[in-house]
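Notes from the 1:1 (GR / supervisor)

We went over the backlog. Supervisor wanted to see one worked example end to end before approving the batch request, so GR pasted a single chain during the call. The sequence is below; no edits were made to it. Supervisor asked that the structure be written out right there so they could see what the output format looks like.
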Amino acid sequence: MELRQLEHFVAVANERHFTRAAELLQISQSGLSASIRALEDELGASLFIRSTRRVELTAAGAALLEESHRTLASAAAAREAVQAVRGVVGGTLSVGSEQCLGVLDVPRELAAFRAEHPGVAIRLGYAGSAALLADVAGGRLDLAVLAVCSTVPAGVVLHPLAERRLVLLCPPGHPLAGRSGVRAADVAAETFVGFRPDWAARALTDRAFAAAGLTHRVELEVNDVHSMLDLVEAGLGLAVVPEPIAAKRPDRLVAVPLEGDVPPWEVAVAVPASPSPAAAVFLERLGPLREPAARG
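Structure output shown during the call:
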């Protein structure tokens, strides 16, 4: 089994299409098909269910995909480690972040990093914190800036940055807008706008309501911060968010502290236990951090 074959396999798995994968890899479709067939012959299992329109992973293919990500990431890290010994920081830095964390200006930090290390290709994607953590553990990301909201897998190290409170966000005219604080029981009957379940604010809010023996019922679900703020401002529901998100519209929305058994909004940088040279250099840019806490 060769790395090249795994790269071909991952491309087809991602694209779900041989022609598009071949174009992405800049090889012929016949060459790609031959590479995949050779890999299937070696493993003694079919990796894809082929049709005229698209391909789907078999159970064996799904099992191989997760390990392929880890293997390719390890190979890339090995190449970059050799470059680092030679005094060259190169390769790719794949970064993930949840929106509007408010503690770290990710675009600004990446711009400064690129200016200092132009030989490093930067990739950036946004997702919920739970998904980002899984991507770091699976070798799909070199580093993620996230809010801690789930069990941290073995092999992942957290570098905590800061903690903020969760607050209830509501329009100025809402009856709760003048309160100095509210508990989950005070708002259980309200209509809620919420992020998708893999976002930290959603997971932490669900946990806070569960601690009070209540269910956090989200009727309007969004996947970006500005849509959340628009819906609350329009009076379509309330939302529980971290202070950095509430601070985006202080003149149009009111933030009321959420009291009781409420988990903190803890922002951290997640990296593999053995980070790539580029990830290690990026961490150094962030200045003094608290002692890293390995969990899992």
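Supervisor's comment: The CA atoms of residues 74 and 139 lie 8 Å apart.
Batch request approved.
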